[in-house]
Amino acid sequence: MSANGIPPDLRTALVAAAECGTLLVSSDYDGCISPLVSRPEDAVPNPASIAAIEAAAALPRTYAAVVSGRELAVLTELSGLGTPVSLVGSHGSEFDTGFAVEVTDAHRALLARLIDELRSIAGRFPGTMVETKPASTVLHVRNASAQDADAALDAARSGPAGWTGVQVTEGKSVIELAVIETSKGHAIDALRAKFGADSVIYLGDDVTDEKAFAHLRAGDVGIKVGDGDTVAAYRITDTDDVATVLEFVAARRRTFLTGGT
């Protein structure tokens, strides 16, 4: 999709947002800035999206953020992003200024039990793997057979997902068990308040992004990337379209701020 190919209704919404007082441009990482891949560590960002989001963040009264399910340290390394772009990891629990909620010794003890249990489950189903984060652990089933993937997820749901104090987030071929409560929706609220944003643009492709879309308000723009049910008002096809949208927003915002037409 070229800039001229942006659907008229989405273009109108993006122009209105780009011409607000203070703008926040935000996106998920995997499936948006980077294509989905079999090995999470191979998720290389689209250079055009990185350039566009950095260009937006460099403009006056314009802020940019990437809100991801990944651990913050991993998100930072993979994306190559940093100040002035804000990074939020672990579905909103890890900000570049620290954790959204204090992680206590009790949280850490529960997390250790969760990790052990998910590793036990993964050991029974080939192609599954466990990722650990500072306040959560994730069971990945993307590389397992359909039968093993379903069985592994069911084992997690019927077991550790039901433990007291565990917060459950499911996404594409993953289930994440966290010991502190947060979401991408709460992350968007926090970023909006921090920057005093009048309008928020958010792009996301996964089930977890629906919580971010649900926290958007009148004048915001929620864009679903790819297939699947969504509460977002707009939809685009793939990561190339994400780059096109981000480039359009950055250019339109620059034109507005410099008094162009």
From TrEMBL:
The record lists the catalysed reaction(s) as:
alpha,alpha-trehalose 6-phosphate + H2O = alpha,alpha-trehalose + phosphate
Which is one Pfam family of this protein? Trehalose_PPase
Q: What keyword terms does UniProt attach to this protein?
A: Hydrolase, Magnesium, Metal-binding
EC no. given is 3.1.3.12
| UniProt-listed GO biological process terms | trehalose biosynthetic process
Hydrolase found in the keyword field: yes
Say which enzyme class the record assigns: hydrolase
Q: Which SUPFAM superfamilies match?
A: HAD-like (SSF56784)
> Membrane-crossing residues?
none
Q: Describe the task this protein carries out.
A: Removes the phosphate from trehalose 6-phosphate to produce free trehalose.
Spell out the protein name for this chain: Trehalose 6-phosphate phosphatase
List the source organism.
Answer: Gordonia bronchialis (strain ATCC 25592 / DSM 43247 / BCRC 13721 / JCM 3198 / KCTC 3076 / NBRC 16047 / NCTC 10667) (Rhodococcus bronchialis)
